[in-house]
Write a structure and sequence with these properties.
two-stranded parallel sheet; Spore Coat Polysaccharide Biosynthesis Protein SpsA, Chain A; 8 helices; alpha/beta; 235 residues; 18% strand; globular
């Protein structure tokens, strides 16, 4: 994701990452990834949580991200997304044009890449030493796809991967919250992790506005095992 943002072309808007994560987790750790990309010029605001238990309620985490942003628009996304080179030029033109007064939750379809291809690539073929800048990170049109939905009329609703919203409107009309803390709806991992806050956020804003976006690619990855073990090796 960060490599693809570094490689954006055209009239690129001012982008600041807000990265929330549990401390000292992953190989490399998220701290190491953020430090590397900061050294390459990306603007990154880190929100470090002491452990996974304090991090696992996504709605609460996103409340904090909203409170700390100074952006006009906030895009809630997942870290397994990669953006084509003119993605943010196009999106910026839309929010400065037809979407400038939009108060609904804006969503755009994604291209979900083939899971078997992705997991095989990352487990057996990928020879990068991370953290690093991945060449042509958003140019993935030649990767096989599991699902392609490019139409703005697609029923493919942006759950966690793409929810764009007007920050001033959220602060003025909804208390600056993603979800009310006492009605988050997210369920912790130990009881069978379930994310309901994304849907509640869309409902709070009055529904969704679907738009056409340049290709955004979902790097499909291994999921939790059938026996219930939580897999984090590819996240």
């Amino acid at each position: 994701m960060m490599s693809s943002v570094m490689q954006q072309q055209g009239n690129v808007p001012d982008i600041t990452f807000s990265v929330a994560y549990p401390a000292d987790d992953g190989i490399p750790t998220t701290e190491e990834v953020c430090a590397f990309f900061k050294s390459k010029g990306l603007k990154i605001r880190e929100q470090r949580y002491p452990d996974f238990d304090s991090f696992q309620f996504r709605g609460i985490v996103r409340n904090r991200q909203l409170a700390e942003t100074n952006a006009e628009w906030i895009l809630f996304s997942d870290a397994d997304m990669s953006y084509s080179p003119f993605f943010f030029e196009d999106l910026s033109q839309q929010v400065e044009g037809d979407l400038k007064d939009e108060t609904l939750c804006i969503t755009g379809a994604r291209i979900s890449l083939d899971k078997e291809y992705c997991t095989t690539y990352f487990n057996k073929k990928d020879d990068h030493t991370y953290p690093c800048v991945v060449d042509r990170a958003g140019e993935l049109d030649d990767w096989p796809c599991r699902m392609v939905r490019r139409s703005k009329y697609s029923r493919n609703v942006g759950a966690g991967y793409f929810q764009l919203a007007n920050v001033a409107h959220i602060r003025k009309e909804h208390g600056g919250l993603y979800v009310p803390p006492d009605h988050c709806g997210d369920r912790p991992l130990k009881t069978g992790q379930l994310i309901k806050s994304d849907r509640r956020f869309r409902n709070i804003l009055g529904g969704i506005k679907r738009i056409y976006v340049k290709p955004q690619f979902h790097l499909n990855h291994e999921r939790d095992r059938v026996d219930g073990n939580h897999m984090t090796n590819q996240r």
